[in-house]
């Protein structure tokens, strides 16, 4: 399977949202309760600033969107346009870590190198802009990939959703 990538555009929004929903609903089942999976939709999602900043990638397997994900030079660590507590201020590459954000793989394309490709693209782009570290908020399903790729877990917390359901996340960091 040959993978290709490109920068996401606003025209990709519907397809990316569909992919994200499938990934959340199908790939988190070993790690979260059904209530937490549903609540995750409020914690996770697409941040349109990533697309507007041209730091978000689409991974294609032929004509199929097999994955998406990106990085950010902004302070927000996780969440979509609907998530509270977002901070669009810019990071300082001399002292801050770039953020790896919103990585999703189509359930039919897991374990085929899509996550690794997104991480490589993010690191290359962040390094080019002067960042020395990257960090992310990982779902429990994502922790094994990020650990394998060299990220270190530096803390866990429960993100409380508007419905009161708590979703576990792990903060992870890597030198680049």
What does this structure look like?
The structure is a single chain. The protein has 176 residues and is an alpha+beta fold. The protein has a single domain (3-175), classed as Gcn5-related N-acetyltransferase (GNAT) (Aminopeptidase, 3-Layer(aba) Sandwich), CATH 3.40.630.30. The protein contains five helices and seven strands. The longest helix has 15 residues, at 13-27.
What are the SSEs and their pairings?
Blueprint: E1 3-7, H1 13-27, H2 34-43, H3 48-52, E2 56-61, E3 64-72, E4 98-105, H4 114-128, E5 133-138, H5 143-148, E6 152-160, E7 166-175
Parallel strand pairs: 4-5
Antiparallel strand pairs: 1-2, 2-3, 3-4, 5-7, 6-7
SSE sequence, one letter per element? EHHHEEEHEHEE
SS-derived structural category: alpha+beta
State the low-pLDDT regions, or none.
none
Number of helices: 5
The biggest beta sheet reads:
7 strands, mixed
Strand order of the largest sheet: 1-2-3-4-5-7-6
**Gap between N and C termini, in Å?**
28 Å
CATH topology assignment:
Aminopeptidase
Q: Kindly estimate the percentage of residues that lie in beta strands according to DSSP.
A: 25-35%
Number of domains: 1
Global geometry:
globular
Q: Could you tell me the number of beta strands? A: 7
Mean pLDDT: 96
Task: Give the quaternary arrangement of the chains.
Answer: single chain
CATH architecture: 3-Layer(aba) Sandwich
Radius of gyration equals 15 Å
Helix content: 25-40%
The named CATH superfamily: Gcn5-related N-acetyltransferase (GNAT)
CATH class: Alpha Beta
């Amino acid at each position: 399977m040959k993978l290709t990538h490109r920068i996401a555009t606003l025209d990709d929004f519907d397809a990316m949202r569909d992919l994200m929903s499938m990934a959340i609903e199908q790939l988190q089942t070993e790690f979260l309760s059904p209530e937490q999976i549903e609540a995750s939709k409020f914690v996770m999602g697409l941040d349109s600033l990533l697309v507007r900043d041209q730091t978000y990638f689409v991974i294609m397997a032929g004509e199929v969107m097999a994955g998406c994900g990106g990085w950010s030079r902004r302070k927000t660590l996780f969440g979509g346009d609907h998530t509270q507590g977002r901070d669009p201020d810019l990071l300082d590459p001399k002292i801050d870590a770039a953020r790896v954000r919103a990585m999703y793989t189509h359930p039919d394309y897991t374990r085929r190198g899509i996550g690794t490709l997104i991480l490589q693209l993010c690191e290359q782009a962040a390094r080019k802009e002067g960042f020395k570290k990257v960090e992310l908020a990982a779902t429990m399903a994502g922790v094994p990939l990020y650990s394998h790729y060299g990220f270190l877990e530096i803390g866990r917390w429960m993100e409380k959703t508007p419905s009161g359901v708590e979703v576990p996340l792990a903060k992870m960091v890597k030198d680049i």
